[in-house]
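Dear colleague,

Following up on Tuesday's group meeting, I ran the structure prediction for the two-component complex that the binding team flagged. I've pasted the input sequences exactly as they went in, so you can double-check that nothing got truncated or mislabelled along the way. The structure tokens for the whole assembly follow below. Feel free to forward this to whoever is handling the docking comparison.

Inputs:
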Amino acid sequence: MRSKNKKPKYPVKKSLRRVIEPYLFLSPVVILMCLLLMLPIILVISYSFYDNVLITNDSTWVGLENYKTVLTDRVFLSSIKNTVIFVVLNVVFHLLIGMALALMVNVKCFSSRVKAGFRVVYMLPWMFNATVVAILWKLLLNANGVVNYLLSQFNMIAGPVEWLSDRSIVFWVLTFINIWAGYPFYMISILAGLQGISSDLYEAAQIDGASSVQSFFYITLPQLKPILISIAMLDFIWTTQNFSLIWLLTAGGPSHATEMMSTYVYKTAFTSYQYSQASAAAVIILLACIVLAIFYVRNQTRED
Amino acid sequence: MMKKMVSVLLTMSLSMALIAGCGAGGDSSETEDAGSDGEVVIEFQQWFDNEMDEGYLQSVCDAFYEETGIRVELLSNPYADTQAQMQASAAAGTLADVVALDGGWIYDYATQGMLADLGALYEEIGFDTSDISSQTEVNGTVYAQPIVNFPCLMAVNLDILEEAGITELPETWSEFLDMCIQVTNPDENVYGFGMNMSTDNATCMEYYAAFAWNSGCSIIGDDGKPFLAGNEVWIETTEFFKSLFDNGVTLPGMYTLTDADKVQEFVNGRIAFMPDSVAHLTNIQEQAPEMNVTYINMPHKDDYDGQSYMRANNWACGIAENSEHKTEAAQFIQYLLGAEVNADLCVHAGGFPVNAASEPAYTDDSEAFQAIQDIYATTTGVAEFYSFPTAEALMRTLDENLVMYLDGDYATAEEMMEVVQQEFDAAYE
């Protein structure tokens, strides 16, 4: 039986200290996050409502004017369209290729040494940074490069194809390169997920007479679902923000054929000096990323 | 208990240090402005240091310190990073005292109030500029001082020309096109003309404009504003440029070719004619020592026989309006323009002096460098785009529309220039 007049374990002073203590431990990270993360975001959002920010001291409040200007700019609208297609294609193909390769390197018929070899080879694109990827593909896709040479040897092309200069194909070429550069992340994540699925499930399915296709759709996919959703959402956010590779390969050209929201923001800010409009465009990208981030966090929370 | 106390204290002190560390940034200029013994320290933000022999620019600053007692602290970044960093520091009010300037930035930085009036400062320190060949003005005020000039000419691979049986160099558009047709051999991957057109650096449009400039064309109207639509020679230049594409003499992939890619293609022997900054000559000589290279000015319109013009590029400097040591900064610029110092800078940078009294002792005795010197001595430099606001953005617009014209999206060059003119005019609104 509990005594009603039981004394508190710690005196009030001590208890207060215990309350403050965790916040003190957290304070360095909280301060860092506020300074390095929240402050820049708040500044960019505030810039988007002013005119001539950064370049003059007498910026004036213009409300939603910058958003209106940006959203009626045909280049920005085409960059949104390009970004959406680019991101969707990247996520879908990353997922398909990553899944296919992960299943391949997870099969039991190969020795672990052979599988390790394949993993290293398949992982290579992810080891290269954007600059190396850009230089590599520029050399391969040069009009006098290896790709055109091989295609001409097999009589598949009549003359040199301008892979990165032909406006009708450059967008698809850029998408292909980014898919190539990004699939290993999926492969490794899915492989880790595959190795975590209990073999009991497959054995039980086999006893019940399930085919390998049925096992894939009714065991593998449901088991991998949390991982697939997480990496797809992260990929959505990363690909939306992709700048380096696009800039190094085409700089958004020729004639806006590969203009993305990221390159649009950069050009608006650093060559047109329209920091307010660039901030408005950046806030639009931020909003899109926040929506995805909310889905991501909700998904993670549900998993927990 | 003791452990807990220590961790709480450590956490608190770390937080305080963090706050203090972030706060200290704003005071850094104060400590830099005055050295421990009261000497003046000025900052020089530039990309020149990275493009010359290691330690050379520091030795120039040291020599300046010996002479004046003013210390110069170098803030060196690659060219590509300099502009963004300058914008950021200007916004924070911490722009370095002396800043390197690219031609395309000057108009905007001057009108944004980032740069000080150099003319007034020169007067204050008694700097006689009679030997100084060029100064960059915006609305009648000098805001930028060129230090080293780099002419942009047409590099020629003489080996390709010789193989095609060509012994003369082209002077007119017709001669140039004929020679390009003669040397072009797609089976051997050899093309007549190769130029960077990537919008990563839209100043490439100055090479295209140089065909017009050397034909006596000006793209600045009487009102000081862009004059593109209805500009006869400019339209003809655009049509001539398209004829190079229509005749198949241009290097495939030019639309997204960068400056570095272009030089690489030239070094690999795939281009006969390449418009380029002469600053790349050393690279070309190092990477293709066997290649016979020379330089010509950009070919001009067939019926033009007037004064010769070339695209001019330079390393320029300005003084920050927020600087607390403007006169010391002006003294430093004066020092860089001294006859001997300027000559020595040119030798190390591979450029040409701004001080007319300078006599650089160039060590390069190649035929190519001799050709450059000959052209430089008789040709007037032009950089008309730099008098327009947001020059780089406008050149990018021109580039994008030019690509559309070359691809047939515009029926005529006039139609394209009408659109470009509207976009250029919009920069003044």
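Residues 14-33 of chain B have pLDDT under 50 and may be disordered.

Cheers,
M.
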